[in-house]
């Protein structure tokens, strides 16, 4: 007995097939999303002039006080005010504890101790202090991986504090530093919190000759380090409160707990037009650092530790305000001396031994 479908049944069958196909596509898409979430995100590799991987690239060693002439500033305008959540924050520290679930304030980031030796590690990943000689290698990978990550994801960031001072002298980390500092606008900080908070990144690099000397492996070996971007839940609270959460985020080495401190700058609308070269507004963090709009923007494109980096427009003005004029000229500090021949800071006892 032959059978045939009526037009109504044909339409119903066609619709059912389309529904099954759509369901199959949705299931495949869901599987792909879950798979990507289960794996850490890689940091895109970059090549450098002369070849070699990021670990083998050497920072510029210019003869000038700062690492060579800066490129023309890219016109990065001062960012607009951040999220409404940040804009509605009261202007003083008398926040209503009945409406703010983050109060009373609790410290989010913890360090294993308060001494100079122990205060530069995240407790969660700390095991033992990193010795002086290899610590600079770990810091170099920290800042390179952070700058590559932010660049590949279009997150605008720039060097700050002691890290900026290191750039000014020779485009490299100062050897007595045990952590690194960068800044972002409050709007970029919000993007980090929404899109990337809690993400683990893989960083693939090739061991250098210096790392082999430090006993970290053999030159040419390919290694993978893991880093965590962790945004403080107090990031949108733009007042200081008790000062327990002045650091807004950290880029953390999950092997040893060393980190890059990330602080956000938000505009203080009540201080617009103040004198002293502050320009059209004052941008501040939660730890008593304030900058004029024209001190920061437009940012200048440069290089730090062999990778692309950004620095404020008025580098010297920013550094003089924070550290004093001698920070730009004094050639001895923290048991180190600046060697003009090598274009780097070296330990004072090493200078004496070779003189």
UniProtKB/TrEMBL annotation:
LicD/FKTN/FKRP nucleotidyltransferase domain segment(s): 152-269
One Gene Ontology cellular component annotation held by this UniProt entry: membrane
UniProt keyword list: Membrane, Signal, Transmembrane, Transmembrane helix
Membrane topology: Single-pass membrane protein
Signal peptide per UniProt: 1-38
Biased composition, class Low complexity, residue ranges: 55-65, 74-105
Lineage: Eukaryota, Fungi, Dikarya, Ascomycota, Pezizomycotina
Localisation per UniProt entry: Membrane
Chain segments carrying region Disordered: 54-106
Source species of the chain: Neurospora tetraspora
Identification of the protein by name: LicD family-domain-containing protein
PANTHER family (alphabetical): FUKUTIN-RELATED (PTHR15407), RIBITOL-5-PHOSPHATE TRANSFERASE FKTN (PTHR15407:SF28)
GO terms of biological process kind: glycoprotein metabolic process
């Amino acid at each position: 007995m032959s059978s045939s479908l009526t037009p109504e049944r044909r339409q119903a069958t066609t619709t059912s097939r389309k529904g099954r196909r759509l369901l199959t596509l949705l299931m495949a898409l869901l599987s792909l999303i879950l798979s990507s979430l289960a794996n850490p995100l890689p940091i895109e590799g970059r090549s450098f002039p002369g070849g070699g991987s990021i670990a083998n690239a050497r920072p510029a060693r210019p003869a000038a006080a700062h690492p060579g002439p800066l490129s023309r500033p890219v016109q990065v305008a001062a960012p607009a005010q951040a999220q409404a959540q940040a804009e509605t924050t009261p202007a003083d520290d008398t926040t209503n504890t009945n409406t703010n679930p983050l109060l009373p304030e609790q410290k989010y980031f913890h360090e294993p101790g308060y001494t100079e030796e122990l205060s530069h590690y995240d407790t969660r990943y700390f095991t033992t202090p990193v010795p002086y000689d290899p610590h600079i290698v770990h810091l170099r990978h920290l800042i390179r991986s952070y700058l590559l990550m932010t660049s590949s994801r279009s997150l605008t960031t720039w060097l700050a504090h002691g890290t900026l001072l290191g750039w000014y002298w020779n485009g490299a980390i100062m050897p007595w530093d045990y952590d690194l500092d960068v800044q972002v606008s409050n709007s970029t900080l919000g993007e980090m919190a929404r899109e990337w908070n809690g993400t683990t990144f893989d960083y693939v690099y090739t061991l250098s000759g210096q790392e082999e000397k430090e006993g970290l492996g053999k030159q040419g070996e390919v290694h993978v380090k893991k880093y965590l971007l962790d945004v403080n839940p107090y990031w949108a609270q733009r007042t200081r409160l008790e000062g327990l959460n002045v650091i807004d985020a950290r880029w953390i080495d999950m092997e040893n707990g060393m980190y890059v401190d990330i602080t956000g700058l938000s505009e203080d609308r009540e201080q617009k037009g103040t004198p002293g070269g502050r320009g059209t507004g004052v941008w501040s963090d939660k730890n008593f650092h304030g900058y004029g709009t024209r001190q920061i923007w437009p940012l200048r494109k440069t290089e730090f530790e062999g990778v692309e980096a950004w620095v404020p427009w008025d580098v010297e003005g920013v550094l003089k305000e924070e550290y004093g004029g001698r920070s730009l000229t004094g050639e001895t500090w923290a048991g180190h001396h600046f060697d003009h021949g090598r274009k780097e800071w070296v330990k004072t006892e090493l200078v004496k031994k070779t003189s």
